[in-house]
Amino acid sequence: MSYDANPMLTVYDRQTAALVDTVNGALATYRQDRSADGPSLAKVRNAWHPVPDQLAAIDETMATLRQNILNVTTDADLTPDARERRIQTLSDVGWVSIKTAIAAVDDAATVMLETARAAVYPARPEPQDAVQEARLAGIKSDAKMVLDTIAGEQATVDRIKLLLRRALDQGDALAAWLFAVSDWPADYLTSRGFDLYLTALAAEVDDVIADATPDTQALVALYRTLAHPREGLPVLGVLLGHLLEQVWADLRAWRPAANTRVPSTLNNGGGIEYQGAVHYPPMTY
């Protein structure tokens, strides 16, 4: 690895910065759409608040390792073997720090998604006793009789959505939970061989909830943004998983060439200042 552009680092830098912008923007938009800062949003915001700092700490750890490698490899008092041992030790210490930050970010993302989802989707009523189980079995039986008569994947999904909308309109909390949250609709579609429509149903359930309960529309939009598989919090699983491991491995393997002037950026060829330009703005709302 040299100080030439590192495509993996470029992707990591841009995607983490984009994610922070996306989440900050979603939280700001939701805040503007609400007359008060409710408990659900407060919990989401509190969980998110330290995340930009944790991501910045990861960046700082990588920049520190780069500088440490430069210092060690130019230390004339060390033998080549001693230099490599020293770099290995510094790398191990840095990776422990990064793993700590990753765990904190993962925990925050989990809290945010679970909190937003719980605020959007119907909760199962209490008490969850034998009487409720009997009624639940009756709802499932009735729904199955209706759905079994329907031919076609999309038509079946549409009828499940209609059953959910009816439950919401009638204030039937147990039926609403069954059709919106439980595994029963997905299990039913699978039993009919309609596996390809599982994702479609999950996405369209949000629409039904937003249409039936206008007060939740802003929160539904927030949850959709946070849970978006390519632009929301799930992206962290890729960024802080294999991608970051590869970036760290490349950095760990880098050695400055003899008599090479080391630029002030880790990924200089990519045009991204590693310390400074990859900026994670704090929440301002």
In short:
The chain is an all-alpha fold. The chain has helices at residues 7-33, 39-48, 51-73, 80-120, 130-147, 153-170, 173-180, 184-191, 198-212, 217-227, 236-253.
Structure description:
The protein has helices at residues 7-33, 39-48, 51-73, 80-120, 130-147, 153-170, 173-180, 184-191, 198-212, 217-227, 236-253. Helix 1 (7-33) runs antiparallel to helix 10, helix 6 (153-170) packs antiparallel against helix 7 and helix 9 (198-212) runs antiparallel to helix 10. The protein has two domains: 7-121 and 229-270, no CATH class; 130-216, no CATH class. Helix content is 69%, strand content 0%. It starts with 6 loop residues before the first helix and ends in a 32-residue tail after the last helix. It is built from eleven helices and no strands.
